[in-house]
Each structure stands twice: as structure tokens, then as C-alpha cells.
Write a structure and sequence with these properties.
The chain is of the alpha/beta class and 214 residues long. It is built from seven helices and five strands. The longest helix is centred in the C-terminal third of the chain and has 22 residues. Bound molecules: S-adenosylmethionine.
Amino acid sequence: MTGSDTAWSGDDSRVYSRLADIAVPSRREQMAILITQIRFKTTDAFKLVDLACGESGLTKAIQTLYPKARATALDGSQSMLTVAPINLAEFEDRTETGVFDITAEDWLHQIDGVGLVVLSLVIHHLDSTGKPRLYRNVFNCIAERGALLLVDIVAGRRPSVWSLHANLFDRIAYEQSMTATDSTELYDIVRKEWNIFIYPQEGEMPDIFFDNLN
Ligand SMILES: C[S@@+](CC[C@H](N)C(=O)[O-])C[C@H]1O[C@@H](n2cnc3c(N)ncnc32)[C@H](O)[C@@H]1O
């Protein structure tokens, strides 16, 4: 990572790359729902920034649908930033990748005046001070008619929802493991270590979404 105090490591990146399609519920549908919220026409030219892009699957999906969109895909993990440009190679004339630390502010110039900022599964790595600060910074930097779209893990108002989510997370991971690999091997890893509702790791801090907007 950059000089951040995040608990996300290079090892996490490698494990995430292997397990994301199993551990993240309905990953493709999540991405599709986010993309359907983009207000641009598919013929529009606009600038987007993917904050904590990982292997850049979301940037790639948006650039495929929007052939005139220019993208900057940023992440804090060197191993993600090794893979991201390879995945975006077909769009290299309208794509940049780079390192950043979402907890810092020295990268904000990169979202200056842009039409779209996307965030997928990284906000829960910020604490309840960092999340509203990020939203405020994005609001102050992007174009007047720009948008921030995000998908992430959030906390429910009632504590009882937590165990419901824990069970659902496990069941979906099991189904996704069987569908993708006809085996429980990946599910077993997810179940033992990756169910955030049972084993929250250091640096994972989901909040009630609307509490961060006050
Ligand atoms: C769960 S992955 C999500 C990746 C991608 N957005 C996706 O949806 O697949 C979390 C990402 O956040 C990045 N990350 C975690 N903490 C970060 C920080 N402080 N600054 C920048 N990136 C960070 C990790 O490197 C990783 O790529």
C-alpha cells in the first residue's frame, strides 16, 4: 500500500482476486446495477475515476459500454496495479492507472471536474470520519452535474440483521462456489475467513449508510 494505515495487504489482494466471484454476492449483478445508474448516454464522452479499482473489472465494464469514456483507475495495492493495466489493455489509449491512498487527500486533483466517480467495495475500509470526508471531497471536486456511484457493505440499523446477513452471505458463497467450480473448496476458504459478518478483519468498518451523510 501507499503510506496508509490500512490493514489491506498484498496477500489480501491475491486472495481477493481468487475468491471475489465466490465471496461477493451476485457480483456481476451488483456491477450491472451500478452501471445502470450512470446518467450519460452511451455515445457521450466523459471522464470517470474508479477509486480502489482492484483488478479494474468495473472500469472495464463501463469502458466497454461507453466507448468514448476516458478512465483513471486508482488503487493502493501494487499487485492490483500489476493486473489492472493488463485487463484494460484494449482501452489503453483512454485509460490511466495509478497508485493512491484513499485515506489521504493528495490525489483529489485526479477527480477535479470529472463526470463520474465509482467506488466498489472499499468504503467499508474507511472509518466513520473518513467516509463523510471522502463524500464531501468528491462532491467538492467533481463536475457540477457529476455523480458518485458506490456499492459496498453497510451495517443495518438492527443488530439482529447482522446474523441474517452472516447466514445469507455463507449460503450465497456456497451456491456460487458450486456453480463456478462444482466444488466447495473456495467456499470453505470464504466460510472460514471471509464472512465479514462473522470474522470482521482489522480495518473493515461498515457503517449505516445514511449516518455518514449527516
Ligand atoms: C475488496 S477490494 C475491491 C476492489 C474492486 N473495487 C472490486 O470491486 O473488485 C478492495 C480494494 O481496495 C483497495 N484498498 C484498500 N485500502 C486502500 C487504501 N487505503 N487506499 C487505496 N486502495 C485501497 C485494495 O487494494 C483493493 O483493491
